[in-house]
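At this stage, I wrote out one protein, both as residues and as discrete backbone shape codes, and that material follows here.
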Amino acid sequence: MTISTENKVWTDEEFMALSQDGHRYELVNGQLADMGNFGMEHGGISSFLGGLLAIHVRQHKHRS
């Protein structure tokens, strides 16, 4: 027995008509990909941690 899993190929019009549910979507090779809802807090924390990492690397850079 074979089960066919046919994927929907999204058109630009269908993609633009999606409801605004707070999630970010992208079309990847015609398929809808849910990119999640990371939001401002996630971005702020990521920026803060990236800054700390950059400072640490600069302070501990091995010079040969």
User: Anything to note?
Assistant: Residues 39-59 form the longest helix (21 residues). Residues 25 and 34 are 5 Å apart (CA to CA).
